[in-house]
Write a structure and sequence with these properties.
The protein is an all-alpha fold. The protein contains 8 helices and no strands.
Length: 163
């Protein structure tokens, strides 16, 4: 099956039809998506601001991450599912929508940033977590993450107005 066939099949699934043709299901799904993204960005911002030394600078980053990451990942899964459901209602419109494409690109870059942080920078977390200054690489990861998530939210808001 080619890409066009895949999008057509997705658009014709029962859940896509129900979301598209129902009166309230799409707004509820969108609300769940926005609320879950709010949790994701809020939790990630706490960690990013800690890396930058702006808030909770005395709290160990390992402890902070241990507290917020499970909730962050749970909310991210909910955002991913609700976003996919909304995408299914008009996949051809979304794949041609520049804010959507930019948002997806930014999500990929944010994923690469978090992977780099966890695979490289956080390996030496134990060396600087307890009273040592946050290293420049960790600050860069936090600033990059914060900027990316702000941009993801901004472009996400544009989608509804340009689709």
């Amino acid at each position: 099956m080619d890409f066009t066939g895949l999008l057509t099949a997705l658009k014709e699934t029962p859940f896509a039809i129900a979301l598209r043709e129902g009166d309230t299901l799409f707004p509820w799904t969108e609300s769940i998506h926005v609320l879950s993204i709010t949790v994701v960005v809020g939790m990630i911002s706490i960690v990013d601001l800690r890396l930058l030394g702006v808030i909770a600078h005395k709290k160990e980053i390992r402890s902070l991450m241990g507290q917020v990451l499970p909730l962050t990942w749970g909310a991210f899964v909910v955002a991913l599912i609700s976003g996919f459901l909304m995408f299914s209602t008009n996949p051809f419109g979304y794949v041609e929508n520049w804010p959507f494409l930019i948002k997806i690109g930014l999500l990929a870059v944010a994923g690469a940033n978090v992977a780099a942080f966890h695979l490289i920078t956080s390996r030496k977390l134990h060396l600087w977590d307890e009273g040592q200054p946050t290293p420049p690489t960790a600050k860069l990861a936090g600033a990059t993450s914060l900027g990316l998530w702000i941009a993801i939210v901004v472009f996400g808001r544009f989608i509804g107005f340009t689709l």
